[in-house]
């Protein structure tokens, strides 16, 4: 697959992953890594809330902008946790064809067994 054909999320992931270990003064992404997993998680939460507000207000432009922000911070979180997007895609593929209600019930019963 050429770079042009590659999905935007995969390109984004590679870019943010390449910033790990970079000088925090030279890159916002590197500064997030330097601040640690808790700060990255906080930013994901903030962006998710901002997206939810934009959706509730039915503000199309803000939904697009906040979605981009959320995907960016999510890619940083994945890279920080050592998770490749292909692992997420595999989980989504595993759930394909399964009722959302059945999948949720299966997760819940698995939690009770722990």
UniProtKB/TrEMBL annotation:
Record keywords: Amino-acid biosynthesis, ATP-binding, Cytoplasm, Histidine biosynthesis, Hydrolase, Nucleotide-binding
Family matches, as SUPFAM superfamilies: all-alpha NTP pyrophosphatases (SSF101386)
InterPro entries: HisE, PRib-ATP_PPHydrolase-like
GO cellular component: cytoplasm
Record GO terms (molecular function): ATP binding; phosphoribosyl-ATP diphosphatase activity
CDD domains membership: NTP-PPase_HisIE_like
Localization terms from the record: Cytoplasm
Pathway involvement of the protein, from the record: Amino-acid biosynthesis; L-histidine biosynthesis; L-histidine from 5-phospho-alpha-D-ribose 1-diphosphate: step 2/9
A single BP term in Gene Ontology: L-histidine biosynthetic process
The reaction(s) this protein catalyses: 1-(5-phospho-beta-D-ribosyl)-ATP + H2O = 1-(5-phospho-beta-D-ribosyl)-5'-AMP + diphosphate + H(+)
EC number: 3.6.1.31
HAMAP family documented for this protein: HisE
Family note: Belongs to the PRA-PH family.
This protein's name: Phosphoribosyl-ATP pyrophosphatase
